[in-house]
Design brief:
- The chain is about 30% helix and about 20% strand.
- By secondary structure, it is α/β, with parallel strands linked by helices.
- The strands form 3 sheets. Strands 6-7-8-9-11-10 form a 6-stranded mixed beta sheet. The chain has a 4-stranded mixed beta sheet with strand order 3-2-1-4.
- Helix 2 packs across helix 7.
- The C terminus is likely disordered.
Length: about 290
Protein backbone atom coordinates (compact mmCIF):
# COMPACT_ATOMS: atom_id res chain seq x y z
CA UNK A 1 0.00 0.00 0.00
CA UNK A 2 1.41 3.38 -1.03
CA UNK A 3 1.99 5.72 1.89
CA UNK A 4 0.66 9.28 1.78
CA UNK A 5 3.22 11.90 0.74
CA UNK A 6 4.70 13.97 3.52
CA UNK A 7 4.08 17.68 3.43
CA UNK A 8 7.10 19.89 2.84
CA UNK A 9 5.21 22.91 4.14
CA UNK A 10 2.17 23.27 6.35
CA UNK A 11 0.19 26.51 6.65
CA UNK A 12 -2.00 26.59 9.76
CA UNK A 13 -3.86 28.80 12.19
CA UNK A 14 -5.52 31.18 9.74
CA UNK A 15 -8.49 31.49 7.37
CA UNK A 16 -7.95 29.99 3.92
CA UNK A 17 -9.65 31.31 0.80
CA UNK A 18 -10.61 28.23 -1.24
CA UNK A 19 -13.04 29.77 -3.76
CA UNK A 20 -15.48 26.91 -3.14
CA UNK A 21 -18.50 29.14 -2.62
CA UNK A 22 -18.27 29.30 1.16
CA UNK A 23 -19.63 32.47 2.74
CA UNK A 24 -16.33 33.19 4.47
CA UNK A 25 -12.84 31.64 4.53
CA UNK A 26 -12.63 29.07 7.31
CA UNK A 27 -9.68 28.70 9.65
CA UNK A 28 -7.93 25.52 8.52
CA UNK A 29 -4.62 24.03 7.40
CA UNK A 30 -3.01 23.62 3.97
CA UNK A 31 -0.33 21.03 3.16
CA UNK A 32 2.09 21.55 0.26
CA UNK A 33 4.72 19.31 -1.35
CA UNK A 34 6.49 19.34 -4.69
CA UNK A 35 4.95 22.68 -5.56
CA UNK A 36 1.42 21.31 -5.24
CA UNK A 37 -1.34 21.56 -2.64
CA UNK A 38 -1.80 18.09 -1.12
CA UNK A 39 -4.73 18.73 1.20
CA UNK A 40 -6.83 21.44 2.81
CA UNK A 41 -8.47 21.06 6.21
CA UNK A 42 -7.86 18.50 9.00
CA UNK A 43 -6.32 16.03 6.53
CA UNK A 44 -3.53 18.51 5.85
CA UNK A 45 -2.24 18.27 9.44
CA UNK A 46 -2.05 14.49 9.15
CA UNK A 47 0.48 14.87 6.31
CA UNK A 48 2.92 16.83 8.48
CA UNK A 49 6.07 15.01 9.53
CA UNK A 50 9.36 15.70 11.29
CA UNK A 51 10.81 17.42 8.22
CA UNK A 52 7.76 19.55 7.44
CA UNK A 53 8.30 23.33 7.62
CA UNK A 54 5.41 24.83 9.55
CA UNK A 55 4.16 28.33 8.90
CA UNK A 56 1.90 29.94 11.49
CA UNK A 57 -0.58 32.23 9.74
CA UNK A 58 -1.38 33.85 13.10
CA UNK A 59 -4.90 34.66 11.96
CA UNK A 60 -3.88 36.07 8.58
CA UNK A 61 -5.68 35.13 5.38
CA UNK A 62 -4.03 32.63 3.03
CA UNK A 63 -5.12 33.18 -0.57
CA UNK A 64 -4.00 31.89 -3.98
CA UNK A 65 -1.20 33.89 -5.54
CA UNK A 66 -2.78 35.66 -8.48
CA UNK A 67 0.51 35.86 -10.32
CA UNK A 68 2.51 34.29 -13.10
CA UNK A 69 6.05 34.25 -14.41
CA UNK A 70 6.28 36.20 -17.63
CA UNK A 71 8.17 38.97 -19.35
CA UNK A 72 7.38 41.58 -21.96
CA UNK A 73 10.68 41.08 -23.74
CA UNK A 74 10.10 43.53 -26.57
CA UNK A 75 8.72 46.39 -24.53
CA UNK A 76 11.20 45.81 -21.72
CA UNK A 77 13.97 45.96 -24.28
CA UNK A 78 12.60 49.17 -25.71
CA UNK A 79 12.64 50.83 -22.29
CA UNK A 80 16.19 49.67 -21.61
CA UNK A 81 17.29 51.44 -24.79
CA UNK A 82 15.60 54.69 -23.82
CA UNK A 83 15.54 56.60 -20.54
CA UNK A 84 15.85 53.55 -18.27
CA UNK A 85 15.15 54.31 -14.61
CA UNK A 86 14.82 50.73 -13.37
CA UNK A 87 18.15 50.64 -11.52
CA UNK A 88 17.49 53.87 -9.59
CA UNK A 89 15.56 54.40 -6.36
CA UNK A 90 15.00 58.04 -5.41
CA UNK A 91 13.18 60.95 -7.01
CA UNK A 92 16.43 62.93 -7.20
CA UNK A 93 18.16 60.06 -8.99
CA UNK A 94 15.31 59.79 -11.48
CA UNK A 95 15.32 63.51 -12.25
CA UNK A 96 19.11 63.63 -12.66
CA UNK A 97 19.01 60.66 -15.06
CA UNK A 98 16.12 62.14 -17.07
CA UNK A 99 17.90 65.48 -17.40
CA UNK A 100 21.15 63.79 -18.45
CA UNK A 101 19.35 61.62 -21.00
CA UNK A 102 17.59 64.63 -22.52
CA UNK A 103 20.89 66.51 -22.86
CA UNK A 104 22.59 63.54 -24.52
CA UNK A 105 19.69 63.02 -26.95
CA UNK A 106 18.73 66.46 -28.32
CA UNK A 107 17.48 64.78 -31.50
CA UNK A 108 14.60 62.97 -29.76
CA UNK A 109 11.26 64.74 -30.06
CA UNK A 110 9.93 62.84 -27.03
CA UNK A 111 11.75 61.64 -23.93
CA UNK A 112 10.45 58.13 -23.28
CA UNK A 113 11.53 55.13 -21.24
CA UNK A 114 10.34 54.28 -17.74
CA UNK A 115 10.97 52.00 -14.79
CA UNK A 116 10.47 54.35 -11.84
CA UNK A 117 8.92 53.15 -8.58
CA UNK A 118 5.78 54.51 -6.93
CA UNK A 119 7.35 54.33 -3.48
CA UNK A 120 9.88 57.00 -4.46
CA UNK A 121 7.23 59.72 -4.35
CA UNK A 122 4.77 60.85 -1.67
CA UNK A 123 1.56 58.95 -2.30
CA UNK A 124 3.16 57.43 -5.42
CA UNK A 125 2.45 60.67 -7.31
CA UNK A 126 5.33 62.41 -9.12
CA UNK A 127 4.61 65.78 -10.67
CA UNK A 128 4.86 67.46 -14.05
CA UNK A 129 6.51 70.43 -12.34
CA UNK A 130 9.46 68.25 -11.30
CA UNK A 131 9.90 67.02 -14.88
CA UNK A 132 9.55 70.55 -16.26
CA UNK A 133 12.60 71.57 -14.23
CA UNK A 134 14.83 69.09 -16.10
CA UNK A 135 13.06 68.86 -19.49
CA UNK A 136 11.12 72.07 -20.18
CA UNK A 137 11.27 72.05 -23.98
CA UNK A 138 10.05 68.57 -25.01
CA UNK A 139 7.27 66.19 -23.95
CA UNK A 140 8.20 63.46 -21.48
CA UNK A 141 6.34 60.14 -21.07
CA UNK A 142 7.63 57.67 -18.47
CA UNK A 143 5.54 54.67 -17.34
CA UNK A 144 6.21 53.33 -13.87
CA UNK A 145 7.50 49.83 -13.16
CA UNK A 146 4.11 48.14 -13.25
CA UNK A 147 2.93 50.09 -16.32
CA UNK A 148 -0.36 51.01 -14.69
CA UNK A 149 0.62 54.66 -14.46
CA UNK A 150 2.69 57.21 -16.35
CA UNK A 151 4.59 60.34 -15.34
CA UNK A 152 4.36 63.17 -17.86
CA UNK A 153 5.49 66.78 -18.00
CA UNK A 154 3.51 69.91 -18.82
CA UNK A 155 4.46 69.82 -22.50
CA UNK A 156 3.01 66.30 -22.85
CA UNK A 157 -0.19 67.37 -21.09
CA UNK A 158 -0.43 70.37 -23.41
CA UNK A 159 0.04 68.33 -26.59
CA UNK A 160 -2.61 65.85 -25.42
CA UNK A 161 -5.03 68.67 -24.63
CA UNK A 162 -5.32 67.59 -21.00
CA UNK A 163 -6.56 70.38 -18.74
CA UNK A 164 -8.78 70.85 -15.71
CA UNK A 165 -11.73 70.54 -18.09
CA UNK A 166 -10.67 67.12 -19.41
CA UNK A 167 -12.86 64.38 -17.92
CA UNK A 168 -11.31 61.20 -16.59
CA UNK A 169 -11.69 58.30 -19.02
CA UNK A 170 -14.01 55.52 -17.88
CA UNK A 171 -11.06 53.21 -17.26
CA UNK A 172 -8.57 55.61 -15.73
CA UNK A 173 -7.83 58.76 -13.77
CA UNK A 174 -5.99 62.01 -14.33
CA UNK A 175 -4.41 63.00 -11.01
CA UNK A 176 -5.23 66.60 -10.08
CA UNK A 177 -4.45 69.15 -7.40
CA UNK A 178 -7.02 70.80 -5.14
CA UNK A 179 -7.96 73.20 -7.95
CA UNK A 180 -8.58 70.39 -10.42
CA UNK A 181 -5.42 71.08 -12.43
CA UNK A 182 -3.67 67.92 -13.76
CA UNK A 183 -0.48 67.28 -11.80
CA UNK A 184 1.42 65.05 -14.23
CA UNK A 185 0.40 61.53 -13.16
CA UNK A 186 -1.91 59.44 -15.33
CA UNK A 187 -3.50 56.24 -14.05
CA UNK A 188 -4.58 53.20 -16.09
CA UNK A 189 -6.70 54.17 -19.12
CA UNK A 190 -5.68 57.83 -18.83
CA UNK A 191 -2.20 56.80 -19.96
CA UNK A 192 -3.53 56.41 -23.49
CA UNK A 193 -4.38 60.11 -23.74
CA UNK A 194 -0.66 60.81 -24.07
CA UNK A 195 0.61 57.45 -25.26
CA UNK A 196 -1.40 57.81 -28.48
CA UNK A 197 0.85 60.73 -29.45
CA UNK A 198 4.18 58.90 -29.15
CA UNK A 199 6.31 58.49 -32.29
CA UNK A 200 5.92 55.10 -33.97
CA UNK A 201 8.50 52.43 -33.12
CA UNK A 202 10.51 51.24 -36.12
CA UNK A 203 11.24 47.67 -37.15
CA UNK A 204 14.92 48.18 -36.30
CA UNK A 205 13.98 49.35 -32.80
CA UNK A 206 11.83 46.25 -32.24
CA UNK A 207 14.68 43.97 -33.33
CA UNK A 208 17.19 45.79 -31.15
CA UNK A 209 14.80 45.59 -28.21
CA UNK A 210 14.65 41.78 -28.40
CA UNK A 211 18.44 41.58 -28.46
CA UNK A 212 18.86 44.06 -25.61
CA UNK A 213 17.57 41.96 -22.71
CA UNK A 214 20.67 41.50 -20.50
CA UNK A 215 21.41 37.94 -19.47
CA UNK A 216 21.43 38.83 -15.80
CA UNK A 217 17.73 39.69 -16.04
CA UNK A 218 16.64 36.67 -18.03
CA UNK A 219 14.81 33.77 -16.42
CA UNK A 220 14.02 30.41 -17.99
CA UNK A 221 10.53 30.10 -19.43
CA UNK A 222 9.18 26.74 -18.34
CA UNK A 223 6.19 26.38 -20.62
CA UNK A 224 6.97 25.93 -24.29
CA UNK A 225 3.26 26.42 -24.91
CA UNK A 226 3.41 29.93 -23.46
CA UNK A 227 6.55 30.72 -25.45
CA UNK A 228 4.81 29.76 -28.65
CA UNK A 229 1.76 31.86 -27.80
CA UNK A 230 4.00 34.90 -27.31
CA UNK A 231 5.85 34.15 -30.53
CA UNK A 232 2.64 33.92 -32.56
CA UNK A 233 1.40 37.18 -31.03
CA UNK A 234 4.61 38.99 -31.93
CA UNK A 235 4.69 37.52 -35.46
CA UNK A 236 1.09 38.67 -35.96
CA UNK A 237 2.00 42.21 -34.86
CA UNK A 238 4.85 42.28 -37.36
CA UNK A 239 2.71 40.95 -40.20
CA UNK A 240 0.15 43.69 -39.60
CA UNK A 241 2.86 46.33 -39.64
CA UNK A 242 4.69 44.59 -42.53
CA UNK A 243 7.84 44.37 -40.45
CA UNK A 244 10.52 41.65 -40.69
CA UNK A 245 10.39 38.81 -38.21
CA UNK A 246 12.72 39.67 -35.31
CA UNK A 247 16.04 37.85 -35.43
CA UNK A 248 15.58 36.27 -32.00
CA UNK A 249 12.30 34.68 -33.05
CA UNK A 250 13.77 33.53 -36.35
CA UNK A 251 16.62 31.81 -34.51
CA UNK A 252 14.25 30.17 -32.05
CA UNK A 253 12.09 28.86 -34.88
CA UNK A 254 15.13 27.64 -36.83
CA UNK A 255 16.23 25.61 -33.81
CA UNK A 256 12.87 23.86 -33.73
CA UNK A 257 11.58 25.73 -30.70
CA UNK A 258 8.69 27.47 -32.37
CA UNK A 259 5.82 25.00 -32.18
CA UNK A 260 7.36 21.73 -31.15
CA UNK A 261 8.27 20.50 -27.73
CA UNK A 262 7.31 17.38 -25.89
CA UNK A 263 4.16 16.90 -23.91
CA UNK A 264 6.19 17.50 -20.78
CA UNK A 265 7.40 20.84 -22.16
CA UNK A 266 3.85 21.97 -22.73
CA UNK A 267 2.45 20.84 -19.39
CA UNK A 268 1.38 23.80 -17.24
CA UNK A 269 3.42 24.03 -14.07
CA UNK A 270 2.52 25.15 -10.58
CA UNK A 271 5.45 26.26 -8.49
CA UNK A 272 6.16 28.29 -5.38
CA UNK A 273 9.41 29.67 -6.71
CA UNK A 274 12.28 29.14 -9.13
CA UNK A 275 13.13 25.93 -7.29
CA UNK A 276 10.52 24.37 -5.00
CA UNK A 277 12.93 21.90 -3.48
CA UNK A 278 14.58 24.33 -1.08
CA UNK A 279 13.05 24.93 2.32
CA UNK A 280 14.21 28.55 2.25
CA UNK A 281 12.33 29.12 -1.00
CA UNK A 282 9.22 27.59 0.52
CA UNK A 283 9.45 29.89 3.52
CA UNK A 284 9.77 32.92 1.24
CA UNK A 285 6.80 31.66 -0.75
CA UNK A 286 4.85 31.36 2.46
CA UNK A 287 5.45 34.99 3.26
CA UNK A 288 4.48 35.96 -0.29
CA UNK A 289 1.26 33.99 -0.06
CA UNK A 290 -0.02 35.58 3.12
CA UNK A 291 -2.04 38.75 3.29
CA UNK A 292 -2.38 40.61 6.56
CA UNK A 293 -5.97 41.18 7.54
Amino acid sequence: MTSAPQAELLFDNGPVFTADGATAPARQAVAVAGGRILAVGPAARELAGPRTSRFDLAGRLLAPGFQDSHIHAVFGGLELGRCDLSALKTADEYLAAIGDYARVHPEQAWITGGGWSLESFPGGLPTAAALDAVVPDRPVFLPNRDHHGAWVNSRALELAGISRDTPDPADGRIERDERGVPTGMLQEGAIGLVEALLPATSAAEFDAALDRRPRRRQRPVRSRQRQDHAGRHHRKRHRRAQLPLPRALRLRRARGQGRGGSTADQRPELSLGTDCRGGDTLQKAAHACTIAM
